[in-house]
Amino acid sequence: EQDLDILNLPSLEAEAKKIIPTGGFGYIEGGSEDNWTLAENTKAFEHAQIVPKALSDMEDPDLSTSIFGIDLKTPVMMAPTAAQGLAHSRGEAATAEGLAAVGGLMAQSTYSSTSIADTAAAGNGAPQFFQLYMSKDWDFNYSLLDEAKKAGIKAIILTVDATVDGYREADIINNFQFPIPMANLTKFSEGDGKGKGIAEIYASAAQKISGADVKRIADYTDLPVIVKGIESPEDALRAIDAGASGVYVSNHGGRQLNGGPASFDVLPSIARAVNHRVPIIFDSGVRRGSHVFKALASGADLVAFGRPTIYGLALGGAKGVASVYKHINHELEITMQLAGTKTVDDIKSAPLTHFSYND
Ligand code: FNR
What we know:
alpha/beta, eight-stranded parallel β-sheet, 12 strands, 40% helix, globular, binds ligand FNR
């Protein structure tokens, strides 16, 4: 456990690569096919520019915000990511502790290395969401929804963009198999929840998901259901029609449909279609305070990222995770000051320009 001295989030990747075993690192870092969408995700933030505002008569930007009435100290949150035991022996428990220390929102994955209850306990009362991968086995779905509710989870994120795994070449090259159990799955698995046992679980993951499934989950739980993996206005409207209380714009960090657009490029049209009826969470490719700002100014209410947190976890445990959020919050504060935006709401109404710098 250690605080990290961070220059910027992209630089964490090379450091983490030195300490995470090859198979695990490839699984975390990789995208699908030739990683085109993965690369475009971060580049796309160049497609919009922040308008500087110097004569703004302001100081001390305020990062606090809220979602579903839950107060947060920062609009930057942890995306749900699987198997954090690959990065650190304490896995998601350490991530939850780190997020709690900075007042950021933690999202747990179905495929976590630590159980819903243990991760919630490590957060020590800090707000957490739980991400559900729908199974064909509805007992499994209902059981996890019940456990989440019991553990004090505040909302469900239903991920719908992984009806089949993306074609991830790093995992093929490394012959990657999860070396650690997935705590939420062990009781449903014939095996021990790792290695081959996990194949059974994947085999029972739903291959087709419709609005009716979203509705069935929203009807079952009294927690808000946020649908994750939305990349078009049409899907956003389908999700809302089916009872979603939130839309999560994401292309899974370029790990699923390669050849799809950068997530940032589709955010404005989705935000227009949603038209403030439900909150929007955004992720994929976010690495800078300026990226967070641009996403908020394009219609997002919260902005998540995945890989940089996992690298912080690998390098410094809970303290490393906290360092990652302190760093991006610092970059965001500087951006807010220079753009003359005192609050997160001010960012949401800040103008962006769309000059092309291709020549
Ligand atoms: C993910 N992601 C993901 N999403 C989800 O809904 N459930 C999951 O279990 C996982 N697992 C997972 C593992 C790893 C190692 C990564 C990198 C990602 C996707 C995640 O929620 C998020 O959409 C992306 O991580 C965002 O992209 P960046 O910030 O990593 O570029």
